[in-house]
What we know:
Strand content: 15-25%
Low-confidence stretches: 1-31, 305-312
Distance between the termini: 35 Å
Number of helices: 10
Order of helices and strands: EHEEEHEHEHEEHEHEHEEHHH
Shape: globular
Largest sheet: 7 strands, mixed
Number of strands: 12
Radius of gyration: 20 Å
Mean pLDDT: 86
Amino acid sequence: MNLINPRPRRALLLAALTALLPLGTGGWAAASAETVLEQAAKTGEVLMVGPTNTPPLISVSAQGEPQGYAIDVARRIDRELQLALGSKVQIRFVPTDNGAEAVQAVSGGRAGLACGVPFSWEIEKLVDFSLPIGLSGLRLLTRSGTLDGSPASLAGRQVAVVYGSVGARTLAGLQPKAKAVTYPTLLQAVTALEQKKVDGVLGDTNLLAGLRQQRKLPGLKLVPDQPYLSYGLGCIVPENNSSLLNVVNVAIAKLFQGYLEGRPDAVATVDAWVGKQGALGVPPERIRVFFGSVLQGREGIILVTPSPAATR
């Protein structure tokens, strides 16, 4: 399929935060039987959504531009769209208030892509997940010396959770006597902790670490040492969009393969957010083990392009 977009654009069009397409209007993808890529053939774009207060996945730079690991993954997906379709179809980013809204936008056909979404079987019923782009887990951010993270320590405590999040779904089972305080976003929950309105924030380990670094909060710590539960993070597309999902998976696999081969662009992408330079500080050996397991688990995927020397 040859999709042509005569309008010249940047490699990835990231919409200005002051001029957004309202998700509720259905302007990008009105209810229809068309796939995301068929719709993109007409509009020239695939709409990506996600909250911008979730570093290191997505945040806003000093220049007002979206940045983060999920955004860099999207840039690679954007390049794969160009290769796969031979066209100028590109990704446009529009922020949402929270992760639950992003899932609703994709599952409802109002957006075609979101990245950095925690896997759960409940969400899997609504959308299709890509290869995982990373791992995370559920932990508690609290003031040093306040809580040790054990379920018993949460009894009677005010614990902030985000509406529709993994933490919100898990707290009652973890400690029925904990007092859940629900906030629209993780940033608001962390702010409540800063202001001592709650005793802790139960949420995604990666995002809590990112916000702690971004807001310079050395007095807060993540407990317990091991997450209450662990899960993969992936990109999601609407159901029955296998062509788009294939493009997304190839982009992720190429990033992982590039990192394993030590290609500077791939290493820089990962290190800036996940590795030694990022908020998570994951050691290179752990990253390599995870990336290798993902590729090997996909029927031993190898995306190496032989060098001229290797073919002689």
